[in-house]
């Protein structure tokens, strides 16, 4: 068990997180990376780094043989898998041990049993842990699953037995939808986990998702470190996590904690693990699954317990006993975490790619940012779209919540689209503020999805002023010294000139003129006087007497601006230049880079508005490509198995 070098078999923020703690413990660290991740922070943080492939996970981060070879090549004595990828792969854990290395996690058998929802549920029922009624049988035929579904009743959940993270999971509200849900879940599960085995469970109406953090050592000690409420979810993927749960009582915590410890004991668990439950309004709870790894949301537990869970993982793997007993565990204050994703909530939450042009994480009391990005890096389509975790701690839930809203607003990423505005909006929702969120919150609050906010003319005026000031400063740098009191001065009135911007597909006509200390910007019928002070990327403006603080990046004709939680991007359209707006009409384009899994139509087919055209896989999820208008398919330019770039034309439809 003795080792002095750890290879971290992961990427992004969790790889950086593990490397930092390992180095603080005096251990040498090794990173693995692909060509796509060559500039990623975890590569620079580690003492050594090994290239393991071009980009796709199947040929790199999921290639256990390459990972083990990299460990041997660099003299690593242990492998930390992080979360995702190979972290819950029993065969990989077994291969690590067979290679004479230490796997920083539970034993292979515990991973195998708990990694299969069907087998885990059977074991939990035998151990007396409350479970949701359902079907976890070995007969996986449509007939057996359909018969079981009729006994369970609707609504029910179809779940991948081998998976997690919302992949291979469907809600089925009636029998008519069951066959399609089974087919879709099988396909997604097979692609994500290499197994198409499914289980069925009764859908618990509007529960809370509450999980218990457990920890076990090799000496028979098992403790729980309290709970996390992860109820705010979209498509069964967590968006907001907090600790403790707002409705938790000491008595309920003791019962759920005991059940979680017994679940770990049933598989002779070792290391960090999480037992997930559904908690209904009556206080009844049901076993959901056990994640045999460190969780994405572990920072909220760290912030209320004062414990470093990664350091505990490493110490347990080295043979040390747990540093605390159950009686010594203390919960202090409240912590809330949100996940910053490269995705577009106003466009169906589609994953986004692009550069990290500017990255400025928030700072302040009680604020922690766990990130896996750096300026100049490119967000690729190969990996999960999570970029960073923003966490806030406070003496009360309300202090933590308000600190987190401020941190989301002040954490600025420009270059790719993110969900920052969506996160700030969720944290301000009445039910979340009151601590009443269930797993149905986002569907209740955003039944039609997160609405795209219309850009205010005031913000457009600020962007125009930032663009013009950047141009002026660049010209002055070439012209030589001009005193500040002469800027904007003329012996004769200067007539405003026209300027055209594009924001996505929208064209904005503006006028702009200079005055001492600022710019007069016309947007439609409104005219805004913008007094502007620029300090690097920081803008301090007074717009018609109202103070506005923003962060901006201007490069050529492009200006990106962050105002509060809003992230705006404009480009100047010059006379004679080509408008790069996305093609409209009947041209269906790829909304993101991805792999075509299926094409559902052929030339000559008649399609309805919203009809399914193709299935695109990107960032480990399947996305349906649908028709934006009814018509006849004129041409199909793609085929299953084809890799597409963002904006590539897939299908042409002759609209009715």
Automatic annotation (TrEMBL):
Keywords, in A-Z order: ATP-binding, Biotin, Ligase, Nucleotide-binding
Top-level taxonomic group: Bacteria
Alphabetical list of InterPro entries matching this protein: ATP-grasp, BC-like_N, Biotin_carboxylase_complex, Biotin_carboxylation_dom, Biotin_COase_C, Biotin_lipoyl, CPAse_ATP-bd, PreATP-grasp_dom_sf
Family annotation (Gene3D superfamilies): 2.40.50.100, ATP-grasp fold, B domain
UniProt keyword annotation of Nucleotide-binding present: yes
Protein's UniProt keywords contain Nucleotidyltransferase: no
Name of protein: Acetyl-CoA carboxylase biotin carboxylase subunit
